[in-house]
Amino acid sequence: MDHITLTINGQEIKATRGMTVLEAAQSADIYVPTLCHYPDLEPYGGCRLCIVEIDKMRGLPTACTTPATDGMVVTTESDAINSVRRASLELILSTHPCDCLECHRRERCGPYDICLRHVAVTDRCVVCPSNNNCELQEVVDYIGVHELRIPRDTAPRTIDNSNPFFDLDRNRCILCARCVRACQEITGVGAIDMAYRGYGMKVATFGDVPLLDSICRSCGECMVRCPVGAITPKEPAVPEREVKTVCTYCGVGCSMYLGVKDDKIVSVRGDEEGPANQGRLCVKGRFGIAEFVNSSERLTTPLIRKDGRLVEASWDEALALVADKLGKYRGDEVAVISSAKSTTEDNYVMQKLARVVLGTNNVDHCARL
Amino acid sequence: MAGLATTFGSGASTNSLDDLSEARCILAIGTNTTEAHPIIGMNMRKAARGGTRLIVANPLEIPLVRDAAIWLQHRSGTDVALLMGMMKVIVDEGLMDAKFIEERCENYDLFKDSLNNYPLSLVEDITGVPGEKVAEAARLYATNSPAAICYTMGITQHSHGTDNVIAVANLAMLTGNIGKPGSGVNPLRGQNNVQGACDVGALPNVYPGYQAVNNEEIRKKFEAAWGVSLNPTPGKTLTEIMPLAHEGKIKAMYLMGENPSLSDPDSSHVREAMRRLEFFVVQDIFLNETARLADVVLPATSFAEKDGTYTNTERRVQRVRKAIEPVGDSKPDWWITCQIARRMGASGFDFKDPSRIMEEIASVTPSYGGITYRRLEKKTLQWPCPTKEHPGTAILHTEAFARGKGHFVPLEYRPPAELPDDEYPLVLTTDRSLFHFHTGTMTRKVRGLNIFASEELVAINPRDAEALEINDGDKIKVTSRRGEVTAKAQVTESAPKGTIAMTFHFAETPTNELTNPALDPVSKIPEFKVAAVRVQKAERVAVKTG
Q1: For A308-364, what is each residue's pLDDT tens digit?
Q2: Cβ of B234: how many Cβ atoms within 10 Å?
Q3: Model ipTM?
Q4: Which of B285, B302, B310 minimises the CB distance to A344?
Q5: Of A356, A358, A360, which to mutate for an interface test with B (greatest number of B Cβ within 10 Å)?
Q6: Mutate to test the interface with A, among B20, B52, B186, B256 (most CBs of A within 10 A)
Q7: Does domain A241-293 sit in CATH 2.20.25.90?
Q8: Reduced DSSP (H G I as helix, E B as strand, rest coil) percent helix, strand, coil of chain A, to 5
Q9: Which CATH architecture has domain A3-77?
Q10: How far apart are CA B143 and CA B25, in angstroms?
């Protein structure tokens, strides 16, 4: 790897050639505000918040689109930067409900508290699923915006709730295009794009049809990258804890975190360090696990056929019956079907039982189907 | 798997998923990757956008076709002819990797002679793909190195599936596309742990680690390890077991986590076979179509409620971790199986937890020799990983093939077992939907997934539909020699003229009642991808008025 040295805010930083100024700063834990940058997406330079000053370079280049070079001298904070940065942020906020963002009570406010600023209930941060997990909140707190000097565009924008797993609320969208870029760069589907111009600009499908009727494959990669509450799960949940495991559907082996609350799966998150998936998941993995695991149709007790009907039985009874009856057959007259869905350990004991206990090699699973 | 074992010496995927990004050419044959392996589909699309030349060979116009440099729309079941045609072009134009063939492979001359039977004109006749297109694809694959091949059931689920796999392997060897990043032959595994189940011997002919049952020395080794004498005769495959059960020769069955009622070919025959069993135990998380036929049903925990490992399509062993307590009185599969074994008086089934089972697996499976739960806690490991110090193996056959030399096999094209005729004029091929998995036992429980795909849609070409006076959305009856299924028609260009495509995710419309149980003679894989069928408009159901 080719290393370079640059100076950011007077601090000497070692970086890898090919990094952008923003990546170099982040690698040294120097915070530069940004809303459109996302580590696995191409540099975009849309939000204009990551502007910096670079010696021997004119104007205020965006850190996310400027390659870091050896000997570069970068400043991330100055009056000039802050003035332009604040103006850019105000433009972003002019189309986003922002009364709460500048309110000192934001942290303490309940969803239906009486609001002295007369903020509509639907516009409040506390009712947004991304509250306290919102990059816009972070950036506003960092830059410190206390008033908008330009008029707000409060015209209601359309909400697309056609998808069964997530909603697209354009009222909260800041047009950072992370979703659009994720759909193109990460999934290669390209179901959504930026449509229309000026204040009319919005994230839309081809022909502006609902997401469900579009070519969207519902993987939710857009949702994962949304910095605000514009694309959010239909059933948002904050898990008590997360457990790292592997998806149980296809053979890709996506590493994922199952979010647990009250001993139920409430969320699924792709593991960015997953060697097979690098954080990505498909519609089945992201949205198709909790419901079958938590399904009320799950078998919860052994069943034994009596008089033609399957009736509930104890484990002791069921196991005794199986051991007794299965024990009567050996070799060619018995078969064991193992499972490509079960763990390797489950399969090992299953084939061992066939070979050691039942004396048969009639053991197989659905590899061929 | 048998095909790759013959040519390479190992049936597993040769490369890692990661290195698809390094391929300059990808041949995706017989795989609807974006639907069946969505993340790999994303990788392929990303690679294609970055300049990798993507060749899609598929009778159906799958979504990946949009991203392809070339789409070879060959007739279902004509893969051998297509690939032999490509290889003939490569040899005729001198595009093969002579050095690789000379140093790493054997039996080339015999194989080369067999190519003479496949002039492009004949290939065109058999496959329906213009000869020039076949040649173009061949040049693309041979001149953009490294080139990777990915395939799935579209290659294997034929009565000559092993030949198809060998053809793919021949192509990779011919161009030296083995043993380096971005190359290789990658059978994409359909199920989460089909690789792991095979690795530890849930197969009739091999013990854990693909060690042959009929090899006396190996049998002795396992007899010593397990402390019993073992049956020396290889067993029967699932696709052979069901007919034997039907005949009454197999009398008892213990089945875990499978649903042959929907997944097996000629499934009404299979259900009858299971009904005829004297004793039938099913272990599952749901009372699915198969469990309903059982004498005893044992409730298993789902993957979210147990510890263990899965081995993915790139031979990567990863930890499955318990997230929640077992639902109801359900128990982990390994626990249940061990309880049954112990109650039958067997020893060697007193595992305290799955990590102890992995210890035993490592002790009898050379390729898993160095895999422990302690190591897996820190990172995943790709087998072969023979020792505790071994870092795992990302790419197979880098220096030499697992069997020594790569073995070229001359091939002869054989048509599918059942071809269309006057009575059954169309070909039925099976496909998968992104929104459901296999027989739908899990995904059909998810409301949102059912919104995306709520019922079977039979993909039929507009010209066929017109001839049969079928409109989009009409109920149609699909009949084969084995059964009939009524489902909704989806008139679409994605199905070529003469071929219809159906999934098998829906219990209401069990597609596999139609499919052909004809088996590949070596791998015993049934011919799901070609069955002759007849399609007609279903009788109109009286519409309620008023």
Answers
A1: 999 999 999 999 999 999 999 999 999 999 999 999 999 999 999 999 999 999 999
A2: 15
A3: 0.92
A4: B310
A5: A356
A6: B256
A7: yes
A8: 30, 20, 50
A9: Roll (3.10)
A10: 9
